[in-house]
Amino acid sequence: MLAVISIAPILQTWVAQFVLARQSGLQGSIGALSARFGEVQIADLHLERDGAVFTIPYLEAQLPLTTALWNRKLAVRSLVAKGWTLDLSHSAGSADASTPAGAGPGRGEEAGALAPAAAAPTQELLHIFRAILRGAKLPCDLALDEVDLEGDVLMASAPGNPPSKVHLIVKGNGVAAGRDGDWAIDATGEFRDTRFGTVDLATHGRLAVAMDSPRTLKRVELKGDLSAEGRSLPKGLAWSVDIAAARGVGEENYTLDLSRDHRRLATILVHAPAATGRLVGTWKIDWRDTDLAPFVPERRLPAVAASGEGEFDADAALARVHAPGRLNIVAGRLGVLAPPLDFLGTVTMDTRFDLVHSGQSIRVDRLSVAVAGPGRAAVMQSLQPFDCDERTGHLTVADPRNDWLEVSVGAFPLKEFPDLPGGFTFAGGSAKGEFVVRLTQGGVAFRSKTPVTASDAAVQRAGQMVGRGLDLSLSFLADHTPGGWQLESTPLTIGSAGQRLATIEAKISRPAKADQPTVIAGTWNADLKTLASQSAIPGTGWITASSASGDFSASVGAWTSVEGKLAVVGPEADQTIAVNFQAGIGADLAVAFRAPVKITVGSNVSEVSADGTWTSEKTGDRIDVRLSSMNVALEHLQQLVTPLAALGGSPLAAGAAVGTGAAQQPAGGRDGIPFWGDWFGSVTVGFDRMRAGDRDFNDVHGIIDVEHGSLRLRDGLWELPDHGLAKAEGSIAFDPAAEFPYSLKATAELGEVDAAPLFGDPPAGHDPVFKGRFSVATTLTGNGFDLGDLVGRMEHEYRLTSKNGIIRLLKTNVAETISQPSAPVSDAMDSAGAVVGSIFGIKRNAVKSRENHVGKNTEAVLDFTYLIAEIGYDQIAITAVQGPDQTIHLREIAMTGREVCATGSGQIAFVKGWSFPVEPLSVELQLGVRGKLTGLLATAGLLSDRKDDKGYTMLNQTVHFGGTMQHIDETQWHDLLAQAAAPKPDAKGKDSTTAAGKK
After folding, report:
1. Helix pair 856-867, 971-981: axis angle to 10 deg
2. DSSP states of 516-556 as a string?
3. CA-to-CA distance for 802 and 814, rounded, in angstroms?
């Protein structure tokens, strides 16, 4: 009777329920239990422990009941359980156990993208093994021969997603004390993620179980292949996983190996001493960007190979993990993270860290990163601990008043630096320096600890070298806040060969709002004398100024405005150029500008205003500018030609050699492009008054058309003193294939001008040499290999013509040089007065006696000098050429009058700093006479037997005039006449004049 009762299902169920209730920490229920004749059947079993829930609708086991009941030995010959569910989604230590209530996805999820997709399954399996090893001791001895299990395991998924379900099938031989179990594992499941969608995972492997006693487990190990498929994952994505848990004396040991393509990605060794209840261990990783790419399909990754190892120490729930270690990363293609980083190429980063992960925060107690690459090295290290919020990325430091990071750059190749503003690029040199980083209220600040310096720097623009052998030094401050960022240089120093060339101090501020402009302001100065003396910046030899300085400010946005000042000091302190400029730049990059220029040389001042526009087009840079002034000096404008030519790309070399006419290239070679570069457009000139030397030109106007192959002056006009207009036109043509690339030709017609401003004012008390009006025309020609060579070969030709005027060139007084002048000379003067009177129609009374007479030659010379003191000419033509040596060569002088003509040549020598009227004059004239003057000079013995086609008889020698145009020296002419007029002794030694008188 008792046997029947003992095997009654209802009683068996009650006994099982009673046993479950007595298990500490375990809650459960049994729907029904039937055990008879070596077979046990269980229905609706429900167990809960530490948040894990196990339910099974039906379980069937083959085992001897007598042995199980009386000897408490459970020898299961077979175990079949299907349809069961193990819910671990809310168990202690599950993936979401530490997630605060209400916490949603944030920025930290991107950094931990692997957690929901790959790390969670292995974490859950590790949790399962820990639960098995640390579970309660079995109430009876266990021996298991054959297993056939099939059910579902529920595990936590990413926040906001339902639990992930894994369908598990376990089949294999049994396990017992001294006999290891070996079961085949097949698991498939779906994991849902808001970023990856649905990911299908599959695991195929073996589960090995070992027992150290009939009632306790000693080791559990799972080896398998894990594959994943999903819409955003590449095909053939698979890993090999080896997870093992073993219980030793006073501790538990866990291992995790993750491999891919026979390459071990991660190895984790965990020790869990029972005395501390903590987890300690080591880790090692070997990851590549191809391993990470499947988990961030929407993002292109840089080329990365990362390997590292370290230790860790954690609590049992992994809520707080301390992990010191070392990580070595070889990275390339960094531009995918931030375009400015692309220039770094491939770099190696050796990172050492000591961090603590707790909840959603990572605390970094120590961090150092050493970066190395081809020709570069840098070290970054933390100066104090800091925390990073995984969800927001927000950083906080222990002491906000002190610096956070220190960065030391040992070597950095400048040629790998991003392009500079204006199209400039570094072509050589390396930089080094130190700076610190400080976290501020909501931002970060950078400050140079030592100046960042660069040696032997080279700079290019459009493939042309613009600077070499430069030494750069920069001290800076930079701040980035939610309101924007600002950068300040304090200062940037540019030098070469141990000498300072320039310094720049600037501040750049950029607000965070997109519609707010970037503001730039600063000051600068340059030592131009040193700059011109060195070869650091090619093409600066033309600079003759000693220094330059200025300031600038700009507001950069949809409309950019720029303004500033420029001051240049010339070779002398009293030679300066001052510029105030303003410019506006539109969205189409068209520039409108205004630049008043003040040029001072001593007490002379010129003021010019340049107003215009500049636009960049496909065919070049178009500039249209108007130059205006109320009072300007031509020599001052010439000081602006050289720097403007330099802007075009062909600076005028200082001290250019004078051209010889031979096609000998200068040391710098020949220009391949015109000095105005690819500029084109027009320059309009409008000056109220322009000074050229000691002359003034009023209402000067003209237009210079700038084309790709030529400069053309048109409509050149200026007002003459008599209110007439002078006209000018010309061009500079450029042909790179010609013998001389540059050719110049310009002409000007000055109309008729009074002789006085042409030849200068005479000394006080003297009449001007010329009286009349002259027509003036000039031609300017030249050619050259470059601009300096062109200037060195230029030649001015002047053509002066005049009709019906008076010339006083031959006026001289010889009477005072003749001996015994009293009576004879007086008679001669009386006679000469009669001659002059006859010319002007004045009658003379014969009041003087002829008792005393001078010689015929003396009388002839005296009469001649008074007749030619003022000569009325019919026509004068002068052709003068001023060459590169600035000397004026009088190539042809021709004058014709009623009784006098003159032809000849000469020169006016150039003396630096002297004006034209006072420069040395040298003229040789061939004089001819006719009419009454012929007899006089014949009597004086000064005529030759030559006559020209107009009947003029030539003097028997040329006449030289010297001095200056303002004060002509006629000494040779005077001496010639005086010698001819002197009394000649007769053969007997008596005075010829006395003899002549007695006759």
Report:
1. 150
2. SPEEEEEEEEE-HHHHHHSSSSTT-TT----EEEEEEEEEE
3. 30
d(CA 116, CA 779): 88
Query: Which amino acid is present at 190?
Result: E
* Residue 16 to residue 11: CA distance in whole angstroms: 9
330 φ, ψ (degrees, to nearest 5): -110, 115
pLDDT tens profile 384-435: 999 988 888 788 898 988 999 999 988 777 877 777 766 678 888 888 899 9
Contact in structure between 691 and 700 (CB atoms under 8 Å): no
Buried b (16+ CB within 10 A) or exposed e, 913-922: eeebbbbbbe
Confidence at residue 831, expressed as pLDDT on a 0 to 100 scale:
45
- The string of pLDDT tens digits covering residues 696-736 is 888 999 999 999 899 999 999 988 766 778 899 999 999 99
Asked if residue 654 has pLDDT above 80, the reply is no
**DSSP state for residue 559 in the 8-state scheme:** S
pLDDT of 525: 94
Q: Quick one: average pLDDT of 549-559?
A: 90
Lowest mean pLDDT among 263-272, 454-463, 749-758, 824-833: 824-833
Residue 734, φ and ψ in degrees, nearest 5? -130, 125
Pairing of strands 679-692, 620-633: parallel
Are 857 and 936 contacting, i.e. CB atoms less than 8 angstroms apart? no
Q: Letter for the amino acid at 50?
A: D
- Determine the 3-state secondary structure of 62 from DSSP: strand
Residue 515: count other Cβ atoms within 10 Å of its Cβ. Answer: 7
Distance CA 839, CA 899 (A): 13
Q: Which residue has the tokens 């046993």?
A: 19
CA distance between the termini of the chain:
207
Any idea how long the chain is? 999
Type and span of the H or E element at 995: helix 992-998
pTM of the model: 0.60
Angle value at C-alpha 203, between 208 and 234, nearest 5 degrees: 150
Q: Residue-wise over 205-218: b if at least 16 C-beta within 10 A, else e?
A: bebbbbbeebbebb
Taking residues 186-197, report their average pLDDT: 74
Task: For the beta carbon of residue 104, count every other beta carbon within 10 angstroms.
Answer: 9
pLDDT digits (tens, 9 = 90+) for 128-160: 666 665 554 666 777 778 888 899 988 877 666
Amino acid at 77: R
* CB atoms inside a 10 Å sphere around CB 467: 22
Chain position carrying tokens 């006072």 = 918
Nearest to 351 by CA among 384, 386, 381: 381
pLDDT digits (tens, 9 = 90+) for 13-36: 666 666 666 666 678 888 887 777
Beta bridge partners of 803: 875
CA-wise closest residue to 203 among 191, 188, 192: 188
Token pair for residue 657?
């050699």
Rg for the chain, CA atoms, rounded: 55
Please give the residue that has the higher pLDDT: either 418 or 450.
450
Contacts of residue 103, Cβ cutoff 8 Å, sequence gap at least 6? 159, 360, 391
Q: Which two tokens stand for residue 128?
A: 């399962």
Please write the tens of the pLDDT for every residue from 793-825: 899 999 999 999 999 999 998 887 775 444 444
Nearest to 384 by CA among 410, 370, 371, 403: 403
Q: Is 584 helix (H, G, I), strand (E, B) or coil?
A: strand
Residue 226 has what pLDDT? 83
CB distance 316 to 50 below 8 Å: no
Quote the CA–CA distance of 42 and 15 in Å, as a whole number. Answer: 13
Residue 683 and residue 185: Cα distance in Å, rounded?
89
Residue 987, pLDDT above cutoff 60: no
d(CA 133, CA 94): 17
In this predicted structure, the answer to whether residue 827 has a pLDDT above a threshold of 80 is no
